[in-house]
Amino acid sequence: LSQCAKNHSVCRMTTHKFPIDAKVIDCHSRKVVAMKRHDRYLALSYVWGAQSANDGLSADSNQVTMDLSFLLPRTIDDAIFVTIKLGLRYLWCDRYCLEQYHSADKRHQINQMASVYNRAVTAICALGA
Fold first, then answer.
1. What residue ranges in the chain does DSSP mark as E strands?
2. Number of helices and strands (H, E) in the chain?
């Protein structure tokens, strides 16, 4: 990844605006935090599967951070591992980084998903857990 960013000018280009109110998982602290303009992150594409009662999703969208120190779905846990192994600190995944309960906020954030994926250092796709 570092060679690509260093030697390929096309890989460094970003044509999408910075997504407003975007969040990422800080893989070191295992908390969902506000994305900063220059954060480098990996984006995860996957199928959610069954939702559990303690999946950490909260109806309070005004939270500054969300703690993910509990048992995460295997796909998310694996993606955190891959993110760290690739030398990145932040991971974006819709389950924890998109608003899930307030439809207007969720719609706004879904409309920014192209920017989220475009600005990611890379994206991974999980085919199963």
1. 23-26, 31-34, 41-45, 66-67, 90-92, 122-125
2. 6, 6
The pTM of this model reads 0.75
Looking at residue 81, what is its pLDDT? 96
Q: Where are the domains of the chain?
A: 16-125
Both structure tokens of 129: 């857990």
Q: Which residues contact 65 (CB under 8 A, 6 or more apart)?
A: 31, 32, 33
**Cα 117 from Cα 129, distance rounded (Å):** 22
Tokens of 51: 């939702």
71 token code pair: 């048992």
Task: Report how far residue 108's alpha carbon sits from residue 6's, in angstroms, rounded to the nearest whole number.
Answer: 33
